[in-house]
Amino acid sequence: APNAVFAAIDIGASSGRVMLGRVPPTSGVSLETIHRFPNGVVELDGGLRWDFDALFAEVLKGLTAAASVAATNGERIVSIGIDTWAVDYGLVNDAGELTAQPYSYRDERSRATVERVHAAVSPEKLYAATGLQYLQFNTLYQLAAEPNLEGLQALLIPDLIAFLLTGERRTEATNASTTGLFDAVAGEWATEFLDALRLPRNVFPPLIQPGETVGTLLPEILDRTGLPADTKVVAVGSHDTASAVAAVPAADQDFAYISSGTWSLVGVELALPVLSEASRKANFTNERGVDGTIRYLRNVGGLWLLSECQRAWAAEGYTQALTALLDSAAALPAGGPQINADDPGFTAPDNMPDRIRAAVRNTGAVLPDRPAAVVRCIMDSLAAGYARTLCDAERLTGRSTSVVHIVGGGSQNRLLCQLTADATGKPVIAGPVEATAQGNVLVQARAAGLVKGNLAELRELVAAGTELERYEPAGALQSSRS
Ligand code: LFR
């Protein structure tokens, strides 16, 4: 039989990719990028939205290219797994049509509905059941802003892609856990809140777990892509952060992780949720991970701050390469001004350098105008936010951690990794940069019976296939291969 390969569709806030993943039995995961495409929020129909039609066209382009690469290699694409950012959804009618381009969580329409939702169900009650951190854009607040849900179903973005590929409507559980309508203990929809918020019982399709089969491809998708008729869509940790955490190459249980990209997701993995009032006040979340684990974490601001600054500087004609900018930032002395990187005031796209300077001014300090100074402020602030959050996670869970794994785009940022080691006082192990796609592929490979084992064993495969970089705390800029 031809060699089995897996297609991973992994779409982030700023770019998407279709990859082929190969999983030899003992030597790690290898990923081949087949198609890469840009993504970003767009002003459309009076709101900040995702151009979903364009994204889906790119997905089909990528799958078509993947089919031809596999055919040329004599390989068989066993299944397709899909992950994207969380909370956002498209509304689909009975005929299966997407009724509008999905809103982005960066749109501010849900700000006005928070009070109404909390009047119907108190934040304490919501947290005690769902364990979800409060973010103004959680799905429940967005749904409350919909004028009319009659005859419509909300499909989270990865589920919407899976639906268009297979015709099957499901809600993948790790992503369901970011809606604010999912019971963290039972692992089921919190139907009592659907009623209290006057949301239809079937506003979401039924749940599906990572590793379960969503369905086979629709005839028109087979025609468009040239994929063979037995290709399946398999549910993975469709929340990108769930897939990334599944691929943290941790050797022991006492690890902390930072999934560092547009956002930084900072926390630990637990077997059971922590739903205490102290946890709610600290705004920690209990999102669901692969294999029913709990991703106990907090959203700390992320490299969005940096990418938005770069966008603003490029518009002014300043185009220094990022590596040079980071080198200049690294050369600046420690102890400069800091901001609170998770301030919701940074969520919307707008002139980021000005907003950062204003935030520094509010602390009584002054931030020099030079881009390098702004970049250093972002890095110092992120590292401080990481350290603060890890301390809180240890306190709230009663656990201690001995190492911090950084995965995702931020793992390539040497300055950020070193500052994180210094701020946390713990060694940082950086990589893989494509943890999300690796987690996506590994869950598919396990569903196909190609690899066996629990998360710890999947993580060994990631470690075997990645060159990890280790940063020691202490200020000294020493780093060594581990
Ligand atoms: C990261 C992420 C975070 C989620 C945010 C919005 O890509 O999925 O986990 O809080 O995006 O969906």
Description:
With about 475 residues, this protein is α/β, with parallel strands linked by helices. It is about 35% helix and about 20% strand. It contains 17 helices and 20 strands. The site of beta-L-fructofuranose has 13 residues, from helix 9. Beta-L-fructofuranose binds near residues 85, 105, 262, 265 and 299. Pfam families: FGGY_C (PF02782), FGGY_N (PF00370). It comes from Paenarthrobacter nitroguajacolicus (Arthrobacter nitroguajacolicus). GO terms for molecular function: ATP binding; glycerol kinase activity; rhamnulokinase activity.
The Cα radius of gyration reads 22 Å
Note the gap between the termini: 38 Å
Q: What fraction, in percent, of the residue positions are helical?
A: 25-40%
Number of strands: 20
SS content category: alpha/beta
The largest sheet is: 8 strands, mixed
Bound molecules: beta-L-fructofuranose
Strand order of the largest sheet: 15-16-14-13-17-18-19-20
Mean pLDDT comes to: 96
Apparent shape: globular
Please report the number of helical segments.
17
Q: Which percent range describes the beta-strand content?
A: 15-25%
Low-confidence stretches: 476-482
Summarize the topology.
Layout: E1 3-11, E2 15-22, E3 30-38, E4 41-44, E5 47-50, H1 52-73, E6 75-84, E7 89-93, H2 114-120, H3 123-130, H4 139-144, E8 152-156, H5 157-166, E9 171-172, H6 173-176, H7 191-196, E10 207-208, E11 213-216, H8 219-225, E12 232-234, H9 240-246, E13 255-260, E14 264-270, H10 277-281, E15 285-288, E16 294-300, H11 304-315, H12 322-331, H13 352-362, H14 371-397, E17 403-407, H15 414-424, E18 428-430, H16 435-447, H17 455-464, E19 469-471, E20 479-481
Parallel strand pairs: 1-6, 6-12, 9-10, 13-17, 17-18
Antiparallel strand pairs: 1-2, 2-3, 4-5, 7-8, 11-12, 13-14, 14-16, 15-16, 18-19, 19-20
Helix pairs in contact: 9-16, 11-14, 12-14, 14-15
The structure holds beta-L-fructofuranose.
Beta-L-fructofuranose binds next to α9.
